[in-house]
Specification:
This protein is an all-alpha fold. 50% of the residues are buried. The protein is globular and about 55 Å long. Helix 4 packs antiparallel against helix 5 and helix 6 runs antiparallel to helix 15.
């Protein structure tokens, strides 16, 4: 919500500070960097000290940074405070998934993650609509960060009183984070799934940062941005429902490969319409349907596949989160460099990332088969 609520206001923020859209996109990309780097610390520490303490520390940082975003009076300060906000939020993507993995495994874990992702998807489904409504009715973008600050405070209070520890911690065991990372980086199967995770979020975050500018270039008014993003989210939620129902029957591996193929189909169609000069907002929304369903299949099943290969769940979640955010930041940087070409860089990036991910998955399966 901290990104989705204000992402529709990116053009407004660019006008407010009199900077280019690519500069304002740094408020998203550097937020992802903070998220990624901090996750590498939260993960192993949560394995040693427990999930609850790390969650409270991270969310306190997130809450304070959210207030700082509200009072930011320059684009550089906003970029900095968004980085700090990401450093706090990094705990949720790592410790949250690790806590669930403490309780579930295998296809059951994939089903639970699908359920979680469906709930999480409500935020980008609702937040852009709220953000668009607020901006279109003359309120400043700062008001959006005021809302985020209130939600962050309420969430921190809720976590303090309601979050229970899911990990049995042995305080007598010392932890060497560097040795743990060396061990995990020797696991080629986990690294392969981590790379697939990163490649998927590379094109996803590139889209998230560019949605408002894509819609604006197609003549869509700001009050409708949120509704268009909500349609995208609805099909993502449908994808999570499909995964929950069919993953016990079809299997994690097959559902993952189906998910990787669907974005290629979607964006290849859009490339055709782009060069045929027939691309409009209706075609865009319809063609994105397979990609958003596929995205749900990828996230749930790839995370499941990755964490099945290791023992340190918190550490593994940290690496996955790092790949998620760092690759995402790189994706935003790439589309920012080719900002003048509109949606085309996003389309080509999605096709390239998904194709490489399929090749990596095929290599993993080939290697695994010959080891047996």
């Amino acid at each position: 919500m901290a990104t989705d609520l204000y992402s529709v206001a990116l053009p407004s923020i660019a006008n407010y500070f009199k900077v280019e859209g690519s500069v304002v996109q740094l408020t998203i990309s550097l937020n992802l960097v903070g998220f990624a780097v901090s996750g590498l610390i939260y993960g192993p520490l949560s394995d040693h000290y427990g999930r609850r303490p790390m969650m409270l520390i991270g969310m306190t940082i997130f809450t304070l940074a959210s207030v700082m975003c509200y009072i930011a009076d320059s684009i550089m300060l906003l970029i900095l405070t968004r980085f700090i906000q990401g450093a706090g939020a990094g705990v949720a993507g790592v410790v949250g998934y690790a806590a669930i993995r403490d309780m579930y495994s295998g296809s059951e874990y994939s089903r639970v993650i699908s359920k979680l992702n469906m709930v999480v998807a409500l935020s980008p489904g609702i937040a852009p609509v709220v953000g668009s409504y607020i901006i279109s009715h003359g309120y400043s973008w700062k008001f959006l960060f005021f809302i985020i600050s209130l939600v962050a405070i309420a969430m921190l209070i809720f976590i303090y009183f309601k979050l229970q520890e899911t990990l049995t911690v042995n305080k007598n065991i010392t932890t060497n984070i560097f040795k743990q990372y060396i061990s995990i980086f020797r696991n080629y199967r986990f690294l392969g799934f981590s790379a697939i995770h990163g490649l998927t979020f590379m094109w996803l975050w590139a889209y998230i940062a560019n949605y408002p500018f894509i819609f604006e270039s197609m003549g869509v008014e700001v009050q409708y941005f949120g509704y268009l993003i909500s349609i995208i989210v609805i099909f993502y939620i449908i994808g999570t429902l499909i995964n929950r129902r069919y993953v016990p029957k079809v299997g994690v591996s097959k559902m993952l490969i189906i998910g990787l193929v669907l974005p290629i189909i979607s964006d290849s169609l859009l490339v055709y319409f782009y060069f045929a000069d027939k691309l409009n907002i209706f075609i865009l929304q319809v063609a994105w349907i397979p990609a958003n369903i596929g995205l749900a299949l990828i996230i749930s099943n790839n995370v499941t596949s990755a964490l099945e290969t290791i023992k340190g769940i918190g550490l593994g979640s940290a690496v996955l989160s790092f790949c998620n955010m760092m690759f995402g930041a790189i994706g935003i940087y790439i589309v920012g460099k080719f900002f003048r070409y509109g949606i085309l860089p996003n389309l080509l990036l999605t096709i390239a990332c998904s194709t490489i991910a399929i090749l990596m998955y095929s290599l993993l399966k080939y290697t695994e088969k010959h080891e047996e």
